[in-house]
Amino acid sequence: MPRAWTLVARPQGTPRQSDFALVDQPATPLEDGQVRVANRWLSVDPYMRGRMNDVKSYVPPFKLDAPMEGGAVGEVIESRAEGIEPGQWVLHMLGWRDEAVGPAAAFTPLPDLGAPPQAFLGQLGMPGMTAYFGLLAVAEAKPGDTVFVSAAAGAVGSTVVQVAKAKGMTVIGSAGGAEKVEWVRSLGADAVIDYKAGSIVKALGEAAPEGIDVYFDNVGGDHLDAALAHARPRARFAICGMIDVYNDAKPTQLKYLARLIGNRVTMRGFIVSDHMGRAAEFHRDMGAMLADGKLRSEETVHDGLEAMPDAFLGLFSGGNRGKMLVRV
Amino acid sequence: MPRAWTLVARPQGTPRQSDFALVDQPATPLEDGQVRVANRWLSVDPYMRGRMNDVKSYVPPFKLDAPMEGGAVGEVIESRAEGIEPGQWVLHMLGWRDEAVGPAAAFTPLPDLGAPPQAFLGQLGMPGMTAYFGLLAVAEAKPGDTVFVSAAAGAVGSTVVQVAKAKGMTVIGSAGGAEKVEWVRSLGADAVIDYKAGSIVKALGEAAPEGIDVYFDNVGGDHLDAALAHARPRARFAICGMIDVYNDAKPTQLKYLARLIGNRVTMRGFIVSDHMGRAAEFHRDMGAMLADGKLRSEETVHDGLEAMPDAFLGLFSGGNRGKMLVRV
């Protein structure tokens, strides 16, 4: 019998296991135009935390006691839709469950880029597009720029590092702990800050004595403040995420915010779905970088549908290197 | 004997009278190409606080024990330069003193817009250009937008209110105390918040139930946070000043910063000198608004060179309505 994770209580602060329940789903016969997919890979992403609150946002909140949603890749096992055949691999948003049923339009065949299917949940999917368009379109980063990226060992951050290097930029990443720092350096970063080892403002000043042109923010808080402290004139900040505040209502404290003025800094929040119309351009450029050996990706994999909440919670305790995934 | 205000100590926090001294200046015979101007009006502006610190910024710090600088308007009383005659009125940056001597290029004849000379220190000068280009170029405000402006009773803010109304926008201002609130309303603002009367977040939510498209920030702090709380999708913030932190090193606390992301807000710091090349366009458009009776300006005037520090300090205690000036 198919099963799905439902949200049974809206988390206060950091979510707990008891906020989620794995529930049997009724068998659903297919209607005309529908497809049944056996999910093989499920995505967990920080933005999902926002959907657990009952707050109007750019994506609607999860409904209580209904299956949650999220990125997933799977194999078509039954089809009553023209043009989709059993055996085909597809990308879709009916994650947090082992079997997905929906209209054919909800499922996208995977582009043929010579990459494994789960890459379309990571570097070649939403996190990769976030990195690519955040860096190149939102922050308008260009060759020669000095780029600072926080959470550089994460799915988005590690792709920012590599795209920036491939495009001729100087890159400073931040990550927590010696092992992740070493990994980010191995991706090509010119310098890596261990944010657990001391003041980020001080470390960034040493890593970028001339300042930074671009900041790609996944974290907020002290990282953002350090970027403000070291922003060069006309620096551009792409504000992608603030994992620091997702579970915590404490205000962000910024000592260096007024430097925005004299340095004419632009800070711009963005969400990747605004750039979905440019997916073909993204796949073409990333496919070329992949073929040239300029992109490496890493996955932190949990096994079994049961592991979904653990994998999700691991995002907030720094439990992943690269893309966090669940293999069903 | 001419006199000038010098900075004798770099202020810690709010400046004190003892940080300044009024000092006799040696009589200076004119060299070829030089002009002598009797200053009639002196400007005090919040940005001057930054120049009192010994910190690299977009304008160099004031030197200790030397005459300070700032906007001034005066009458030429002696000239050894071609094309500048005694009796002519000029705008220049050798303020904080009663007599200015310098090369002809340092003095700009006042444009003929039918306005009193001191208007070129206010609405038709640097504060007016700050309002005009901050609103229209930096925040890209357009007819139909809902605009929130803090310190709306100040020299910059009161001009933002009037330019925005003249261009067909809905305007919400904030000011401190009933008298200033009433005055900002009389300038045409659709709603005015008294920031001394309670929560700015709550008041802005009531004044703009559909949210704001543009925020013109002169204050920072709680005003900025309220603007973040009520930003509509794709809102633009022009960050002009943060008078809240000029005298105070306490960090800015923002509860609503992460809303930048979902609403794709752009925050952009700016300084008016980047737009000086467009002064002719500014004078043309403002001159037309003035002729149409769409611009009113108010001045808070202190008398006598001796009053400069009082006038300057009054900027930080809400002591002015409209442009703060000293008449020499």
Describe the structure.
The structure is a homodimer of 328-residue chains. With 328 residues, chain A is of the alpha/beta class. The mean pLDDT of chain A is 94. Chain A is 25% helix and 26% strand. Chain A has helices spanning 48-51, 126-138, 155-166, 178-186, 200-207, 221-229, 243-246, 259-262, 279-291, 308-314, and strands at 3-7, 20-24, 34-43, 72-79, 89-92, 99-103, 108-109, 146-149, 170-175, 191-194, 212-217, 231-239, 252-254, 266-269, 299-303, 323-327. In chain A, the strands form three sheets. In chain A, strands 3, 4, 5, 6, 7, 15 and 16 form a seven-stranded mixed sheet that branches. Chain A has two domains: 3-122 and 297-327, Alpha-Beta Complex (Quinone Oxidoreductase, Chain A, domain 1); 126-273, 3-Layer(aba) Sandwich (Rossmann fold), CATH 3.40.50. In chain A, 49% of the residues are buried. In chain A, helix 2 packs across helix 3 (155-166) and helix 5 packs across helix 6 (221-229). Chain A is built from ten helices and 16 strands. Chains A, B: Residues 13-326 form the Enoyl reductase (ER) domain. Chains A, B: It comes from Sphingomonas abaci.
